[in-house]
Amino acid sequence: MSETMNGKARMFAVTSGKGGVGKTNVAVNLAVALAKSGARTLLVDCDMGVANAGILLGLNPSMTLADLLARHCELADIIVPGPCGIGLAAGHSGIGIGSTLSQAERVRLLKALETEAGDYDHVIVDTGAGIGAESMALVAAADRALIVLAPEPTAFMDAYALVKALAVGQGVSDFTVVTNLVESDQAGRALFDHFESVITRFLDVRLDHAGSIPEDPYVREAVRRKRCCMELFPSARASKAMTRVAARIAPAAPVAVRATMEAMHGAC
Question: What residue intervals traverse the membrane (predicted)?
Answer without folding.
Answer: none
